Amino acid sequence: MTNNLWYKNAVFYEISVRAFKDSNGDGHGDLRGIAEKLDYLQALGVDCIWIMPIYPSPLKDDGYDIADYYAVDKAFGSLDDLKELIRSAHEHGIRIVMDLVLNHTSDEHPWFQASRSDRNSPYRDYYVWSDTDKKYKDARIIFVDTEHSNWTWDEKTGQYYWHRFYASQPDLNFDNPKVQEEMLQVARFWLDLGIDGFRADAVPYLIEREGSNCENLPETHDYLKKLRSFMDQHYSGRILLCEANQYPEDVRPYFGDGDEFHMGFHFPIMPRIYMALKKGRFEDMAEIMHRTPPIPENCQWCTFLRNHDELTLEMVTPEERQWMWEQYAPEPRMRLNMGIRRRFAPLLDNDRRKMELANSILFTLPGSPIIYYGDEIGMGDNIDLPDRNGVRTPMQWDNSPNAGFSKNTPFSDLVKGAEYERINVAGQINKPDSFFSSVKRMIKYRKAHPAFGGSSMEWVDTGNQAVAVYVREHDGDTVLILNNLSASAETVNIPVKFQKSHLDLFTGQKLNLTDKLTLQPYAYLWLHIQK
Ligand code: GLC
């Protein structure tokens, strides 16, 4: 594990620790549970897992409300369990990154408890206090379904405190050098334990300034660069992955000159993949990719189809949002804030063809792909559960009681209709024709071809808007990708330069391209172009 640029062509996998595997029968998934499943992750072809927050927390936001940055919540195990998981993962050739929540703490964190106890507390300045709730009016509210203001009144000390998320998540004051230093120490603690890096949560909001929307401010970037240089100095080869739900031109500065984040999620391409599948046209995807600026050589995008949050529609126009809601969230309770609280497979009507096609797009776009746990088997959701819990239900390992997740009653209801009896890992892992095996094959071919780890993506004009055709090329390796987004068979014109015989990566057979090619509904092809 010596290649410092490992993340540039790696397959990531996001895990809700509580929902993945319960090793001790208390109904909660835990770190030892993940360790038990490393063989599984290795078989799928995962290079790096991202574990959601494991810190002690009152769980008002599923652990993104941290009460202690220096411990593991008992439900998940111990620091020793984490060390052991890291050791064993590395043995499997798998790295582990974890959430680093910089922007806010839980209101139960001792810093906030002290801060709100007295205006003269040495911790008062760890948070953002104000006599008025009229400051920073231009900052949007993120959890619009629950919060009406970014300010909450504190009765005891007679001031308002600032929070971008739930009121139970007060924002730290990054204008305070002590806060800046504290968070470097937090990073140091986990890096010393052996963690391979951080998915840095909600970074656009660290600093507030009057007259701005309080996102992406220069002072925020200054701090993030400090964090990066601290990591480069002491922990080279570890990474910072940026969660900035922004348009590509606003994410671009988070890469700096290759001296800020190693990676950044590409938020806007995600809903456009779903748009493309519904419209049977690729133009929205192409438009956002054209709008994506180049990034420094040592940086990489991270692409995804779903994650633990609602499918965010923040990076589309209001008209597009409305359309997406109508198409993908017909029942109002499927909607949450500015998004859709459903999982990948049900969004695509559990239609195997669409599910494979979406993955064909995911695995061939520039950037390193990340899979949300369970999506590799086409697991469903449970929209009876509140907030985003419906997409965080126990992993379906087999058809035994509790889906093989736990020996005891799980922390959460499962997907309804005993879906696990039909859709589970055991039923798919050894079947070459399962959805899991399709995803596994895509990962295998992706990893065998350097073309996918590069940054180039050239769209090919075939005269048919229903088929997304592009060339990926890197280090002398070239792959031509064709994705038929439509429910009907579609014919494309093949440009002269591609009218030869190519290797079809999935069949291992030669395919001779002539001037026209017809693709079946939702069919995809990955062709290796021989020089
Ligand atoms: C990020 C997380 C989300 C959390 C929020 C506040 O957006 O992905 O789950 O609620 O930050 O920490």
Describe this structure in words.
- The chain is of the alpha/beta class and 531 residues long.
- It is built from 15 helices and 22 strands.
- The protein has an 8-stranded parallel β-barrel. It has a 6-stranded antiparallel sheet with strand order 15-16-17-22-19-20. Strands 4-6-5 form a 3-stranded antiparallel sheet, with no helix packed on it.
- α13 packs parallel to α15.
- The structure holds alpha-D-glucopyranose.
Q: How many individual β-strands?
A: 22
Give the low-confidence spans.
none
Q: Cofactors and ligands present?
A: alpha-D-glucopyranose
Terminal Cα span: 32 Å
Number of helices: 15
Radius of gyration: 23 Å
Instruction: Output the structural class.
Output: alpha/beta
Strand numbers in spatial order across the main sheet: 1-2-3-7-8-9-10-14
Percent range of helical residues: 25-40%
Mean pLDDT: 98
- Gross geometry: globular
